[in-house]
Amino acid sequence: MHFASDNTAGVAPQIMAALEAANAGNVPSYGADALTEAVTVRLREIFEAPQAAVYLVATGTVANALSCAMLCAPWETVFCHRNAHIEEDECGAPEFFIGGGKLTLVDGPHAKMDPDALRRAIAHTGRGGIHNLQRGMVSITNATEAGTVYSVAEVTALAAVARDFGLPVHMDGARFANALVATGASPAEMTWKAGVDVLSFGGTKNGCMGVEAVILFDPTRAREFELRRKRAGHLFSKHRFLAAQMLAYLAGGLWLDLADHANAMAARLSEGIAALPGASLVHPTEANAVFAAVPRAAHRRAQAAGAAYYLWPFDQSLDGPGEEPLAARLVCSWATTEEEIDEFLSLLR
Ligand SMILES: Cc1ncc(COP(=O)(O)O)c(C=O)c1O
Ligand SMILES: C[C@H](O)[C@H](N)C(=O)O
Q: Sorted alphabetically, which keywords does the UniProt record give (predicted)?
């Protein structure tokens, strides 16, 4: 029973097979290979964005950090939710790659920025002229760090606020596929048509070994991104192996099928937990993660049986005082099975 993170899942067999198939002979390095070109063609088709520039990197953190570095000057700030991954879990990488920029935290329920709160935060920034940090960009996570999802209308509303101030919009889409299948939106509707300028398109959490695509819907600054990626040490020499993963991931809608399965498993788990005496959901389950408060005795049974997951926030402990229910984050992946879910629920009951 593995619910610690979708990062703990293995590689989907179709992706592993694609890596094996790509491992033949010598091919041009550093992205000059045919597979890499095919990825750009395919992502342009999927996103209905024939001019988009596409760059592959190996981690979601660097996809986010380089995107922020390109959209935000060192004297500017990134507006994001206070629980955004770029704030809480990237060890300052965005600020580092920006060259000293800061993040301005915006509130909103269930890790989703509230448009009015965003507008207030942007309006407040930079009023003191030369003495103040300047307005830089907005970053939205979809699916969010709380397992919730922004609808197209919600993304559009946030992007409209950004546009009112002339700010570009980035989307941390480490779990973009999960958000897409949850909403039924098209890739284009959820991104550039809603006002998103740059997307970190995730593959790693959803079955790939390690690949993310940064998609610049306006290719004007593509060369700058190329230079930033190289300078950060993230231009893979054997780039074909990033491309092989991404191409297989996109083939025949595999990316959507894997995300749909993970979301379905989370829905099954969420419904089971919500029905437990003394248990309750902390956030709505809209993608592949369940955030729920569970009685401590249930936690003890599950952990004694070897279930792998984190209490949430991470720094809680079952050894602390009191007997009130404790919250946990339970993440499902492409590899999660119904049997795993049902075994876990039987332990909690
Ligand atoms: C929402 C979100 N964005 C970005 C990342 C960063 O990805 P990586 O751990 O590959 O750097 C993660 C990690 O799981 C994540 O959950
Ligand atoms: C939080 C941690 O950094 C990782 N992004 C995860 O979701 O497991």
A: Lyase, Pyridoxal phosphate
Q: Ligand 2 centre from 91 Cα, in Å?
A: 12
296-304, long-range: CB < 8 A, 24+ apart: 296/323, 296/324, 296/325, 296/326, 298/347, 298/348, 298/349, 299/326, 299/328, 301/347, 301/348, 302/1, 302/344, 302/347, 302/348
CB 162 within 8 A of CB 168: yes
Looking at ligand 2, which residue's alpha carbon is closest to its atom 3?
89
Determine the distance separating the centroid of ligand 2 and the alpha carbon of 169, expressed in angstroms: 22
Using the mean position of ligand 2's atoms as its centre, give its distance from the Cα of residue 331 in Å.
10
CATH topology of domain 11-253: Aspartate Aminotransferase; domain 2 (3.40.640)
Cβ of 8 below 6 Å from ligand 1: no
Residue range 182-204, pLDDT digits in tens: 999 999 999 999 999 999 999 99
Residue owning the nearest CA to atom 8 of ligand 1: 60
* Nearest ligand for residue 4 CA: 2
Confidence of residue 320 (pLDDT cuts 50, 70, 90): confident
The pLDDT tens digits for 90-111 are 999 999 999 998 999 999 999 9
Query: Does the reported pTM lie above 0.80?
Result: yes
Does residue 42 have its Cβ closer than 6 Å to ligand 1?
no
CA distance linking residue 251 with residue 271, whole number of Å: 32
Q: Is 255-348 CATH 3.90.1170.40?
A: no
Residues of the chain with CATH 3.90.1150.10: 255-348
ipTM score above 0.95: yes
Find out whether the beta carbon of 89 lies less than 6 Å from any atom of ligand 2. yes
Which residues lie closer than 8 Å to 45 by C-beta, 6 or more apart?
Answer: none
Mean pLDDT of the chain: 97
